[in-house]
Amino acid sequence: MAVRRKMGFSVRELLLEDELNEVKLLGGEKGLDKEIKGVTIIEAPDIVKFIDGGEVLLTGLYAFRSCSIEEFQRYINELTRKSVSALILKKGRKVENADVKIDLLLEFAQTHGIPILEVPFEFSFRDIMSLIMERLFNEEVTRLKYFKTTHDNFAALALAPDATGKGVDKILDVLAKLIRNPVAVFNQNMTCVAATDGAERELVISKEAVPFEPEIFSNYSYLKQKVEVSQCIIQVKMSFREKIYLVVTELGQPFNTMDCIATESAITALRFEFSRQYAVTELEKKFQNDIMHNILNGKVHSMGELQKNTSLLGVDINGSYRVIVFGMANESMTKGDFEAKVKDTNVLSEAIFRYISNAKIHNDLDKIVVIRGVDKEQTQEEYRKEIKKVVESVQGDVSKHNKHLKVKAGVGKVVNGIIHLPESFKEANEAFMFVDVAGEISEDGNPQAMLFSDLGIFKLLCQLDEPSMLLEYVPEGLQKLYNYKKPQREDLIVTLKTYLDRNQNLSKTAQDLYVHYKTAAYRIEKIAKITGIDFDNANEVLAVRIGLVVYKMIVNYNKDFI
């Protein structure tokens, strides 16, 4: 493992060099810990235009020998805009108003914390330059060696065979030891993928987060923010649409240049590891999807084949399971936008995986099919509450991605043995298709999840494939209302539904529809005239209620023959 060393060559350390034991500090002692990044001799007053900051400036004031006090002051004012590390002064040459100019420099040094050092006249500026340049060169060599060592360490981790699936954890553990701070990785949805001890497992990028330069060449974006503690966030683009966030929490020490070097090497290893995991996962998904598709659709033709497939899936052939079919509606999506639909489905799949344990997940185009092991001790009511909570949690995650997406789920019955899964899958699909019309028969209004067992008499209707057969369950009078061609038709249908939901109470119907009582009464009379419904006949009213649900069912099945 690489060994970290302190980087940065300060003015204080320069003064400790044996060659400079005769140097005197004239002022600006507050700046002794400034880092030295370069050195230059002032050969002309306009040199200040060409410095970058962090330099030690060497001067005998000879460049200012004939300038006036006002001109020298203007030079100093220009110098204040440059973050120099120190000035090394050599007296002895003939300079006009030298004492005044030196006093101005000392005042400048005290005000801005810039150390002013004096060396004997016989001391060579070239020797000082060589000394500083050698130290700076050694620092760069050390950085290069550190980069090489850390790069080799992380490359070895990334290339080593890993059957445990802990490659990311190992990389983060090594990085945390190198930089002496906890680290965590988050995916593009800001969900924690892996973290070391002490790292925050939730990420919110504050509006006050500011970019910062890592002082090394980097292809990544660095941010710093202060939450309860200081955090460094590195955003890494993984592919055209995906990215990760590597977060360093500054608990041990401030994040510095050497930490950036180690982190960049770790990121290279992480990118390789994530790419490897993605390739393996996609291959496994494809293999698993094919097996699950065959099992769910009853395409396994022998017990031997079934045993082999269940073994490959890692499930018990005699276990108890139920199938759940998830999907989404998105009214804002442009029709035919297949790429957006795939992206949305992937988000749904990730959310389901997060909230459903003990399950196998199958991506079926725009739906997600879940085969889930069941707890035999759990009651139907307990499961109903559980699946409702799961769907609500999945909805919460999906809404963060796109607020227009609405999650829905259909749930099949419990079956004993993998071979019977097609039965549960068929029921789950039918319940899924029924979710949008379930509000007509459920006290919950329009639930997000529907158990096939809760459909009651409507389970019989799910067995009908012919539209004409479904239409037979819509009373002839109600069909006349749906075929009514005048603009009032929609108002009349809504009024009829509300009237029946309110147990034929005209006052409550008017309140729900925000219309006058007489308007509601007029509409009911109109409906009775068109349909011939006898609202005093309980059997006829029941037939109409069923007919309303069946009609909505037909529409949702895209049976547009009406």
UniProtKB/TrEMBL annotation:
Residues 305-431 form the CdaR GGDEF-like domain. Residues 14-136 form the Purine catabolism PurC-like domain. It comes from the Bacteria. Residues 492-548 form the PucR C-terminal helix-turn-helix domain. InterPro entries: CdaR-like_regulators, CdaR_GGDEF, PucR_C-HTH_dom, PucR_C-HTH_sf, PucR_dom, Ser_kin/Pase_Hpr-like_N_sf. Belongs to the CdaR family. PANTHER family: CARBOHYDRATE DIACID REGULATOR, DNA-BINDING TRANSCRIPTIONAL ACTIVATOR ADER. This is PucR family transcriptional regulator. It comes from Clostridium scindens (strain JCM 10418 / VPI 12708). The lineage of its organism: Bacteria, Bacillati, Bacillota, Clostridia, Lachnospirales.
